[in-house]
Write a structure and sequence with these properties.
The protein is mainly alpha-helical and about 120 residues long. It has a single domain, classed as Orthogonal Bundle (Tetracycline Repressor, domain 2). The protein is about 75% helix and about 0% strand. The longest helix has 24 residues.
Length: about 120
């Protein structure tokens, strides 16, 4: 896409940058949908990990931009992280904690688990 087209569709580099970050974050969030209390623990976590690995392999530049944003304190996506991502991590952490409480997996810091993956 030419620079002129980029400016036409996004208006500025800042808007384009935010869109790249938002799309990567959204794609990562979609990969958590299989993590539910009634799901098979191994299958759900395997599918989540595979989806994240595949996504990072398919879109390495986007992940690099997102990682760089996080390393710099997330100044642009701070609001998205504090709202959408936080809600989802809390929700999925509760699922993992339910698995732990039911003896389906060893105790783990559930929030840290998602950031590690």
């Amino acid at each position: 896409m030419s620079k002129a087209n980029l400016h036409y569709y996004f208006g500025s580099k800042e808007v384009l940058y935010l869109e790249v970050l938002a799309r990567i974050l959204n794609d990562c969030l979609v990969s958590t949908h299989g993590i539910t209390e009634d799901a098979d623990l191994c299958t759900a976590l395997e599918q989540y990990i595979r989806a994240k690995v595949e996504l990072s392999a398919q879109r390495p530049d986007g992940f690099k931009v997102f990682a760089n944003e996080l390393l710099h304190g997330a100044p642009v996506v701070k609001e998205l992280l504090a709202t959408e991502l936080r809600r989802l991590v809390q929700e999925k952490s509760a699922v993992v904690q339910a698995w732990v409480d039911a003896g389906r997996m060893a105790p783990v810091d559930t929030v840290h688990l998602f950031f590690t993956i």
